[in-house]
Inverse folding.
């Protein structure tokens, strides 16, 4: 058998042609096996995974909602073996979170650094002028939205938001509203409440939601608009009272559904929800980004996460990819408009 250049096989007689036939057959088999091995190796190539511990940055102080969430997530990742390397939680809260954001921005191309974000992602650069924008990082996923609740001490006579606001209106500037940092999300919401109800608070910033809750427990301030997770333990021990949810609907979870909305209590609607999301450093590779999207998607599906969302009064709201980016763009616009109207821009 002779193999012509045209690719046509010509049959011929004799031992020589038979020998050539077997030689060509062996060559073709070797080539076919080689191609099969290459295809198999490509198909089974291992996806990217961290080669060293992952720095899990928190741009906020200890005890706040972001801190609590990050320290809850890291053990879940280890428990369910979602990463071959551990996630090491690190607080970088200076400058209203600017320290954390600038650190991650400076880690271009480093896939071993991620950051959990709250609304200081938007407020800090607008309020301080720090050279940072959320587009300087790589969006990974939106895990949840966090509610704000108006809190007072249980020793006060106020049982509803309407009763408390009536007292504030009678003494402008006397009542102290504690919050997490100057010109941050708590103050943005406080300004929105002031504008909606014609009130004037004396806003005092503290370092983190945990510290704010402690100040209210100690009666050093009159109220806060803390997240549920930052005050839930004080609510359960009977020290703090949740007057109203700052959203247009109640929190549909067992421990929280009894708390009315501001509109139910006052007749006027105020709604503001805060991001709990994940970002990476800029300039990372698609397969590195895909790893973290997959990890946090799996985290959001664990029974531990479902219980955490319920206990902490969060709105479970996973988003990734283009949908997450679109949400960020809309939120950025909303925060800028609120800070502009409240005179909080740098």
């Amino acid at each position: 058998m002779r193999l012509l250049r045209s690719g046509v096989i010509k049959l011929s007689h004799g031992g020589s042609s038979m020998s050539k036939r077997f030689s060509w057959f062996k060559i073709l088999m070797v080539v076919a096996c080689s191609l099969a091995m290459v295809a198999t190796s490509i198909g089974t190539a291992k996806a990217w995974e961290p080669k060293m511990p992952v720095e899990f940055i928190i741009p906020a102080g200890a005890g706040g909602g972001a801190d609590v969430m990050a320290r809850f997530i890291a053990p879940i990742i280890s428990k369910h073996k979602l990463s071959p390397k551990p996630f090491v939680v690190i607080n970088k809260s200076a400058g209203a979170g600017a320290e954390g954001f600038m650190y991650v921005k400076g880690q271009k191309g480093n896939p071993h650094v991620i950051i959990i974000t709250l609304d200081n992602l938007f407020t800090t650069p607008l309020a301080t002028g720090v050279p940072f924008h959320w587009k300087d990082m790589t969006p990974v996923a939106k895990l949840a939205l966090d509610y704000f609740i108006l809190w007072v001490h249980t020793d006060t006579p106020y049982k509803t938001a309407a009763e408390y606001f009536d007292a504030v209106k009678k003494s402008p500037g006397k009542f102290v509203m504690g919050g997490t940092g100057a010109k941050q999300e708590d103050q943005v919401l406080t300004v929105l409440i002031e504008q909606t109800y014609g009130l004037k608070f004396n806003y005092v910033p503290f370092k983190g939601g945990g510290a704010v809750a402690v100040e209210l427990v100690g009666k050093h301030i009159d109220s806060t608009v803390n997240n549920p997770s930052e005050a839930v333990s004080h609510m359960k021990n009977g020290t703090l009272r949740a007057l109203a949810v700052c959203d247009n609907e109640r929190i549909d979870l067992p421990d929280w559904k009894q708390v009315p909305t501001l509109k139910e209590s006052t007749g006027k609607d105020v709604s503001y929800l805060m991001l709990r999301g994940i970002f990476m450093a800029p300039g990372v590779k698609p397969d590195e980004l895909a790893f973290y999207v997959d990890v946090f998607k799996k985290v959001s599906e664990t029974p531990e996460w479902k219980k955490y969302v319920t206990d902490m009064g969060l709105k479970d709201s996973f988003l990734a990819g283009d949908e997450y980016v679109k949400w960020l763009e809309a939120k950025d616009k909303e925060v800028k408009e609120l800070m502009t109207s409240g005179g909080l821009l740098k």
Notes: The chain has a mean pLDDT of 89. The longest helix spans residues 15-43. The longest strand covers residues 138-146. The chain is about 45% helix and 20% strand.
